[in-house]
Amino acid sequence: MAMKSALDLAMEKVGKIQSDEGPLSDEQRQQISDLRKQYEAKIAEKEIMMQSEIQKLMRNRPPQEAMMGMHQLQEQFQETKKALQQEAEDKVAEIRSGKA
């Protein structure tokens, strides 16, 4: 038996979720759309804050130190972004299941 790729497994899971949930109501679609816009705005805000911090570093620190700080800020942003994306997807799942 051939092993399935992670993509194959994910696609099967998505297919099962979609088939179990049935069609979305207009209200659910609107809630999901609003939720995604809200989280996109949160992520954009965090990115702007990171860029501002990077600019401060570049102005106020020696180049080597500024670069290290920049990399740390970028890593923190990526972690925050992933957490916010996961939080949004969890809330979307709640809406889809009718629990929200």
Number of strands: 0
- What amount of the residues lies in strands? under 5%
Distance between the termini: 40 Å
What is the tally of helical segments?
3
- The level of helicity is over 70%
Contiguous uncertain segments of 5+ residues: none
Mean pLDDT: 87
Tertiary shape: elongated
Kindly name the structural category.
mainly alpha
**Main pleated sheet:** none
Q: What is the succession of H and E elements?
A: HHH
Question: What radius of gyration results from the CA coordinates?
Answer: 19 Å
Give your account of this protein's structure:
Helices cover 86% and strands 0% of the residues. It has 100 residues and is mostly helical. Helix 2 runs antiparallel to helix 3 (63-97). The chain starts with 5 loop residues before the first helix and ends with a helix. The mean pLDDT is 87.
In short:
The chain has one domain.
Question: Topology of this structure?
Answer:
Blueprint: H1 6-21, H2 26-60, H3 63-97
Helix pairs in contact: 2-3
Key terms:
single chain, about 100 residues, mainly alpha, 3 helices, about 85% helix, about 0% strand, elongated, coiled coil
